[in-house]
Each structure stands twice: as C-alpha cells, then as structure tokens.
Amino acid sequence: DVKVTQSSRYLVKRTGEKVFLECVQDMDHENMFWYRQDPGLGLRLIYFSYDVKMKEKGDIPEGYSVSREKKERFSLILESASTNQTSMYLCASSLLPLQNTEAFFGQGTRLTVV
Amino acid sequence: AQSVTQPDIHITVSEGASLELRCNYSYGATPYLFWYVQSPGQGLQLLLKYFSGDTLVQGIKGFEAEFKRSQSSFNLRKPSVHWSDAAEYFCAVGAMDSNYQLIWGAGTKLIIKP
User: Fold this and answer.
1) Closest to B37 measured CA to CA, from B110, B84, B88
2) Which residues of chain A make contact with B100, given a CB cutoff of 8 A?
3) CA of B47: which chain A residue's CA is closest?
4) In sequence order, what are the residues at sequence separation of 6 or more whose Cβ sits closer than 8 angstroms to the Cβ of residue A84?
5) How many CA atoms lie within 13 A of A2 on its CB side?
6) B70-100 confidence digits (pLDDT tens)
7) How close, in Å, is residue A30 to chain B by CA atoms?
8) Residues A69, A51: Cα–Cα separation, whole Å
9) Which of A54, A48, A64 is nearest to A99 (CA)?
C-alpha cells in the first residue's frame, strides 16, 4: 500500500520559533509537494520538488523554505513562525507531473502558532 | 487566468438521495480534470480523473463525473449517498502550461442527513 507519512498530526509552536514539518514517501516518487489548506481557499501550493536537491516555488512561498536531501523525504521549514501560518499543511507525492497522474497525500499536520 | 470554481461551499443531502457537486473551470485548452475527496482527519484521495475519451468517467466508491466542454464543467455525481460519503470534495484542473501543475477549487463540504 502506498504511503505518504507526515511526522506530526498536530503541532503547537510559539511565534518566532523555527518549525520543521517532515514528510516521507515510500513509493520512490520523483515529485513531492507541500500544500497549505485553509477553509474556503482550497489547497495552495507552497513549494514542490521534482528531484533530489531541486525545488520550485509555488503560489505562496513567502515565509517558507524546503529541503530535499533524499528522494523519499521532503521537509518544510518555517524560518520564523507567525500566527498567520496557523493552518493545515499537506504533503503529497506523485510519480509523474501532477497534471498527468494521481497525487498521494499524507494525513496532514495541523499547525497552530501562538 | 486559469481557475476552478466550486460554487457550493456546503451541500446537505439525505442518506440514500442522489448527489451532484458542481465544478466549473476556466482554461483555454482541454484540461486534465480530477476529483479528490478528503474524509475527516485524512489526506486527500483521488476519486476519478478525466484525460480524454469517454466524457463520462467512473471512479471509486460509486462516484462518476461528466466532462461537458460546452459548459466548461466536470460535475461529480452519485446516485445514492451513504453516511460515509460525508467529506470535503475538491475539483482540480491540470494545466500543461502551468508550472504549478494543478489548480484547485475551494472545495465543497458534503453533509449527510440521517
């Protein structure tokens, strides 16, 4: 069974903290994605990666960075957390570019910044 | 600009009744079209997709969707809903000329009345 695993389901962090969200996939997929999900806004792409050490900005990269040192792992970093980054974060992976194929999602990390 | 509209934020349906969730898109060429479902506390799962061919597409869990080019629509249907169908449903469009790969609708939350 294919699997995308996010390291935490719930996180509470303080304003100004550096936050790491981890995502691991076991499907040997080339492409990995970080989305942010907010009510009424759907999914907004933060960053994606199509290969190890490669990254591309999505629609809302400000305040975030990413790291992909190994094919199976894609990390999202909030350099200095702010309250407006309180949200649900979803990681996904796909074998092909998303317009051609199915994306597999993790269960999400609900981050609260206080 | 490319966009996806799901006009209904919430829909309430009685168990056993039929369901139709609307999705309209704006895109110059024939897009790739997707419906994903997010059950409570879960990541997103692909229900069905349309790339080409027969405009009526069958998916998992008894869902189907019909691509209507003249109406720029890709509505999701189910003849008889079950309580387990309560979830949020997302329509997405894959644009070949988009660096961001998928354009997402804002989602429709389906509530099932017993």
Assistant:
1) B88
2) 45, 48, 58-59
3) A102
4) none
5) 16
6) 999 999 999 999 999 999 999 999 876 665 5
7) 14
8) 9
9) A48
Which candidate, B102, B100, B26, B24, places its Cα nearest to that of B66? B24
CA of B48: how far to CAs of A39, A55, B2, B36, in Å?
Answer: 23, 28, 21, 7
Count the neighbouring beta carbons within 10 Å of the beta carbon of residue B111.
11
Which residues make beta-bridge pairs with A24? A5, A73
CA distance B60 to chain A (A): 13
Q: Tell me which residue in B46, B99, B106 faces A42 most closely, judged by beta carbons.
A: B106
Percent of chain A past pLDDT 70, that is, above it, reads: 98
- Is residue B106 within 8 Å of B6, Cβ to Cβ? yes
The answer to whether A3 contacts chain B (CB < 8 Å) is: no
Nearest CA in chain B to A10: B41
**Per-residue model confidence as pLDDT tens digits over A65-76:** 999 999 999 999
Asked if the model's pLDDT at residue A31 lies above 80, the reply is yes
Query: How far is it, in rounded angstroms, from Cα B55 to Cα B22?
Result: 15
Mutating which of B4, B97, B101 best tests the A interface, going by the most A Cβ atoms within 10 A? B101
- Measured between CB atoms, does B19 come within 8 Å of chain A? no
Report the C-alpha gap between B13 and B8 in whole angstroms: 13
